[in-house]
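Chapter summary example.
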Amino acid sequence: MMTKVNKIQAARSDFEGFNSTLHRPVGGRAFVSPTLYRVGLPFLSHSTEGIIFPYELTEWNYELSVGVPTTDLPISSLVDVYFKEVEGPAVYKTTRERVSPPDELLFKIPPSDLKQFEGKKLTISYNVHLDDDSTASLELPVRVTTRLTYDKPVVEGLENGDIIVGNYPDGLDVELQPIKNIAFPSIVALSWVVMTVIDDVYTILYSTIQRYDASPEAKYVMRVPKEAYTGWPKEAYAICGGSVDFAPHDPNLPTWGTGGHKIRFI
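The structure predicted for these 266 residues follows.
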């Protein structure tokens, strides 16, 4: 027989758009929320958006897992993890695993299984099963982004990989067209790096980067000064590219490239 469960409203959440509810047995104590990991590094929550999970990560082959602390769990209990869309029917549930205190219980999640949550807010929680009783943990808010649509940045004067430096005595522009579906808190960046090879070692001679607050309607323009493409050794070249930082607050999350160019100076 299941223990009677009350559904109570949790303390007001800072995560806008997440209707946080908490299930706990009468007289019981709630279990803490799980942790979401990418290659062993935890995702960090934004102060208002929760965890930002880029849709593009669903197409990478890497280790994604959910960690459940087991220190306070009964040794004979079983645990499963539950992904649930906040305002819709999409769900994902793991098989049950037996706890082994004091080690954290890790559930490996195929990244492609999260494609169904594209553009949605969801919560991740776990259920602790003991005999005929089941208790749900606190919820971890997550937002899966919508797949980005973008083009390579356009470099003024670039033809067949070459720039005639004498045609641009006062600098040139690099322009990235609007990135469809980009959203707060993402940051867009344009970069220009001049490199060469010295004694079989790649060496950076010059670099500049400019960052912009993201908007799906915005064009991003970087002015490249003359010194960025003038006066370099013949074998030097530039790499110019765009990138998106989906979660600037989370140093564990890599940026996503929007394409670029290798540029020769003539």
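To summarize the output: The domain at 154-265 is CATH 2.60.40 (Immunoglobulin-like).
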